[in-house]
Amino acid sequence: MIRDQYMLITDLPALPDGASVRLRGWIRTNRNNGHVGFIDLNDGSRFSGCQIVYDMDADAALKPASKYATGTAVDVTGTLVFTPDARQPFEVRAASIVLVGGCDSDFPMQKKRHSLEFLREMPHLRTRTNTFSAMFRVRSVISAAIHSYLQSSDFLYITTPILTGNDAEGAGEVFTVGTCDGRDFFGRDACLTVSGQLHVEPFALAFDKVYTFGPTFRAENSNTTTHASEFWMVEPEMAFCDLEDDMAVMEALIRHCIVTALSDCADELKFFNDFVDKDHTLLQRLQTVADSRFASMTYTEAVTALQKAPVAFQYPVDWGLDLKTEHERYICEQIAGGPVFITDYPKDIKAFYMRQNDDGKTVAACDLLVPGVGELIGGSQREERHDRLVARMQELSIPVDALGWYTDLRRFGTVPHAGFGVGLERLLMYLTGIGNIRDTLPYPRTPGNMIF
Amino acid sequence: MIRDQYMLITDLPALPDGASVRLRGWIRTNRNNGHVGFIDLNDGSRFSGCQIVYDMDADAALKPASKYATGTAVDVTGTLVFTPDARQPFEVRAASIVLVGGCDSDFPMQKKRHSLEFLREMPHLRTRTNTFSAMFRVRSVISAAIHSYLQSSDFLYITTPILTGNDAEGAGEVFTVGTCDGRDFFGRDACLTVSGQLHVEPFALAFDKVYTFGPTFRAENSNTTTHASEFWMVEPEMAFCDLEDDMAVMEALIRHCIVTALSDCADELKFFNDFVDKDHTLLQRLQTVADSRFASMTYTEAVTALQKAPVAFQYPVDWGLDLKTEHERYICEQIAGGPVFITDYPKDIKAFYMRQNDDGKTVAACDLLVPGVGELIGGSQREERHDRLVARMQELSIPVDALGWYTDLRRFGTVPHAGFGVGLERLLMYLTGIGNIRDTLPYPRTPGNMIF
Known about the structure:
Two copies of one chain form a homodimer. Chain A has helices spanning 116-120, 130-152, 197-207, 243-264, 266-276, 282-291, 299-308, 325-336, 386-395, 404-408, 424-432, and strands spanning 20-32, 36-42, 50-55, 73-82, 90-101, 156-157, 163-164, 175-179, 190-192, 209-217, 230-239, 295-298, 340-343, 365-370, 374-381, 417-423, 445-446, 449-450. Chain A is of the alpha+beta class. An eight-stranded mixed beta sheet of chain A has the order 6-10-11-16-15-14-13-12, with helices on both faces. In chain A, strand 14 and strand 15 (374-381) form a beta hairpin. Chain A is elongated. The two termini of chain A are 32 Å apart. At the A-B interface, strand 1, helix 2, strand 6, strand 7 and strand 8 of A face strand 1, helix 2, strand 6, strand 7 and strand 8 of B.
């Protein structure tokens, strides 16, 4: 047993002043004035490390420590000293600093500040920087918050398949799957899922409230700051549910994530606010949203507002056209000043499975737009009427036979139901203010890029 | 808003006798004696449903309800009546039963008992049977229990990539990924991950305790009851950790899952005990394991015990050969009588990254074997010594250059570290007694089989 011999930095504040401690971790910085040295030790147990002070004049055995480079793993024994007047509330005065694993001089994570682009080339080492230490902590906390919120709201977690013969969006931009030796493994064409929605609907029609949360894939050749080829999506689906119910759950889930980030990632969000967010208003923006209701307007109202806007958009605005990111951002950033639902989109720019409104022109769909990102959630009430669903599929030349299992759900005890999908990475962009989706993913995959 | 108008069956026990209620759900069975009818209504909120009693003599308006077939969705108002002496502790006396969605007569989930094989052909409808209602509840609870246990033990959740250029096991049995139009999307060969371990190790060396939990893939052509082509795996990884620490975490995690299943899925496990488990001892077996320490023996001891065993195995037993499922099951079922760790396997039958023991022959690896399944967990301490790791890779002709990022972790502050992988579906087989991995997956994928 190794682990029991050590304490974690996160446990130190609860110990008494003067306690004997033994820590281990990695050196972030190490400086000295020839007499006394200072190591910033990080053991991964929290965002910030612990200052280790070693007095080489008092104990010559500590002298080798001054040679330990950034990145070195060490084993430290010493005394905990509270320093209420210093920048760090405590430090450890070292009695011994033992080398565990040295660090070669080509270690790229030196003290100087690297660009995010540079760090993207080394996903295995950028984990040891402040930005990514903060990001992956927030990612873990928010992923867990999504699970725990939905579980405590009696949603069942259903893992829908990654390998599928269906293409939920009908978009065709899918990755195909084969074997090295060309075997026809499944006896039919296989591709990677673009959404778990179609597969999770049957579970909502048995279990009432369900969600899928897993990786999804798009083979789109779009090199933007908000698109990745592999990303995580949480997709709740509820029976006996209309669009209004659906939107209430979306808002509650997003608010829960914001509140959890503010409370459980305070150090990390402060770092993003001070060092990443361009106008240092991240914390204030999140707090405002946590405290207020999300705005809502129909697509028709949004188009009217955009047409009246005193700005020249790159893309045209006209009823029936899809909103582009510039429009979405204008609506939430300039008109609503925060997250806003756009509802009741024209049926011709939305998916076949969305419930047709009585006007014959729109569907019971909504997108949630957030500042800095644009679309964060897409949701809809599903078409539960068998005849309407099949007619719409035929209009759009979607193969009714291949999706017979899906349309059959409307023949066997159909009920109103609705759901939505949240992109985890876009949510993280919104919560941290980081500008590129590549910096929210442990190993980002985008066109032309798959490192390791 | 639709949802607020209704109560859930799971909420009824807390209401007063005689309360007015409004429920909705699906009819599991509907029978009547010409005067009074009885509907077993299931709304998905819990494993068992609620009996709806409708008195057609007292109210002729209830007569149409007698025609509603299994699978029909209905909206019921009535009065809650506690029935402490009956088999069900409460029922609802209906005042009205309104049709929501009818059920066509070709609905296959009729009362008669179907084989699991038959049900596998319709993953979108088997959700409405008792077996799968129970299974997917347990699956959700156990998935959530894994997350909450690891999160509360300060593990960070890291989503390692599905699309990768590395093959962790060096096995070659991987699925390859392309695009419909043959584009070279990533500029290099892409395949589906067989394990997140290599990708999660860098995170352990920054964050101390981490885990990945997601789908993994094997293109093996094995049609067995314990292999699926797509399955979920949780893989914790810890820095400053040896095999002994590692095994302590494995045991604690599995025990937590058992205890959670026994407490939070009592109805479901009772169903599996009574109707699925072949000797109806599931609950007793799980309780015994929850209360006792897991056994442990070295591979060498296991081979000696197997050689002395008074049975004729199909496959040979000799030091240096891998244990087959028949051997694994004999060890845990006949020798240990429960879960057992086998440690210190010959290095030649284990992966390159496992830490070499001082004997020069074995590695610091362990498998946890459980009755009915065989191998449930594989874990090891990782080789943290750069020279040993590279030498072993060269011996095995594993490309050192392509995995330079992985070996580099041993040059930049290397520390002892260890981890393991638990197959979620095998854990579910163990917890429910179900005999085929296909019945633990929402949409099982196996050679030649990918439905929907």
